[in-house]
Design goal:
By secondary structure, the chain is an alpha+beta fold. Helix content is 35%, strand content 21%.
């Protein structure tokens, strides 16, 4: 389960494009921050994706990936041209295919091979036609689905939604949010040539006149239990309310938001599949494992990354795709996993009631993030050098590391107990035992 949003220049305060996503996955699945450089490949080279091998291209672009540890592809990311993509699980009436390309594989392939959002739409649909989509996407238990994508560059954005080999795409006018359900109706701009005829042949609609992509192709039962409608409406409502004045802070607030029932109680005592900041527990099997905001401008693209689960507990840190050693590259998957696990230990300590000064930690975290936002805003307007950006990144990421590390070390010796209903306590006890926490 996930939520992805975009606001184009006519909807943001500074005329930029702002893209944001929470990745909701099984809670013990490490979420890695990887940066892969531009590469040239020999003619005829092959590429091993998660399940299948496909033809490689002669050159792939530099990419920033936020990805599940065991999957070749990514949940969200960007490339050197400012192209950003996030994917969503969607549940449709079309039968699942054999293991082939995952939605996350399609996302990474588009980032490595495309420069604009429209190019990405065309590439993903071409790969879908050639290879299909399918395969288990679950970490500890099997989970299969089709995919939708929100794709943005520095000027435009597209929504692309699929159902097996079928698809529809729509260009974004100002703001758009997608969750775990099909959202495109009859107002698509591009589509699979057999999209409507197939629905008519299956008696999902009677004619072209009454065709509606989401209504015809959705599996309504699975879609309902995903909580997607609540989350998508919450995101869309806030974007519409703030249209014309949307900022990075707007997106951060949405990614951290909970449904009203969870706001009244502690989110660390009960689950909620209807919250954008998703908390697992009991029947709710997904948790927000990583969060990301991209601020795209003509002068500078700034990425705000947690590198951790649970955005209501985390600190977004600035990142630029300049020469730096902040994130992890090929061969550093273990280091990337340890980075995530330290921050996940903090989350589990909070669940267990072992962080006695939680309010103090949250206050310090908010102050740090505010300082990073103010500093980044100031330097961005002054056209900073790569060296200046490297210094800011190094300090920001080091200070976040120091706060998290000190809080974890101070809390480890404390006794505590997971609060909430019995099923919630048992769920997290079992998850933490599996993770070695």
């Amino acid at each position: 389960m996930c939520d992805t949003m975009v606001a184009l220049g006519r909807a943001t305060k500074d005329g930029s494009v702002i893209f944001a996503k929470n990745s909701d996955r099984q809670p013990n699945e490490p979420h890695l921050l990887m940066r892969i450089p531009r590469k040239k490949h020999p003619k005829g080279a092959q590429l091993k994706c998660t399940y299948i091998t496909i033809d490689q291209v002669e050159e792939t672009y530099e990419v920033l990936l936020l990805k599940p540890s065991w999957i070749w592809g990514a949940e969200m990311g960007a490339n050197e041209f400012g192209l950003n993509i996030g994917n969503e699980a969607v549940f449709t009436r079309v039968r699942q295919g054999l293991p082939s390309l995952l939605g996350m594989d399609l996302l990474r392939l588009a980032l490595e091979r495309c420069r604009t959002s429209l190019e990405a739409v065309h590439l993903i649909t071409e790969l879908l036609a050639k290879h299909g989509q399918g395969g288990n996407c679950g970490y500890e238990k099997e989970f299969v689905y089709h995919n939708s994508f929100l794709i943005a560059d520095r000027e435009t954005a597209w929504v692309l939604e699929t159902a097996g080999p079928f698809w529809a795409a729509k260009q974004v006018e100002d703001v758009y949010a997608i969750s775990n359900r099909l959202s495109i109706g009859s107002d698509f701009d591009l589509a699979h040539p057999d999209l409507v005829d197939y629905a008519i042949s299956r008696k999902w609609c009677t004619s072209r006149a009454d065709f509606h992509f989401a209504s015809c192709y959705s599996n309504r039962l699975f879609t309902y239990f995903s909580g997607a409608e609540n989350r998508e409406q919450a995101c869309t409502l806030r974007l519409q309310q703030d249209k014309g004045s949307i900022t990075v802070e707007t997106m951060l607030a949405i990614l951290r938001s909970h449904e009203p029932a969870l706001e009244k109680a502690s989110p660390f005592r009960r689950p909620s599949v209807r919250s954008v900041c998703m908390h697992a527990g009991g029947l709710v099997g997904d948790h927000t494992t990583g969060s990301y905001v991209a601020h795209l401008t003509d002068k500078l693209d700034t990425y705000w990354i947690t590198g951790s689960s649970t955005p209501c507990l985390s600190i977004f840190k600035p990142y630029w795709m300049t020469e730096n050693s902040i994130l992890f590259g090929d061969g550093q998957e273990e280091e990337a996993q340890q980075f995530w696990l330290l921050r996940e230990e903090l989350h589990r300590l909070v669940l267990q009631g072992r962080v006695p000064d939680l309010e103090d930690y949250l206050h310090q975290a908010a102050e740090l993030e505010r300082e990073f936002l103010d500093l980044t805003r100031a330097v961005s307007s002054a056209e900073p050098t790569a060296e200046q950006l490297a210094v800011i990144m190094k300090q920001a990421w080091a200070r976040e590391q120091e706060l998290v590390q000190s809080t974890v070390e101070r809390s480890r010796p404390n006794l505590g107990r997971i609060q909430g209903r019995p099923y919630f306590r048992r769920y997290w006890e079992k998850q933490s035992k599996k993770l070695g926490l």
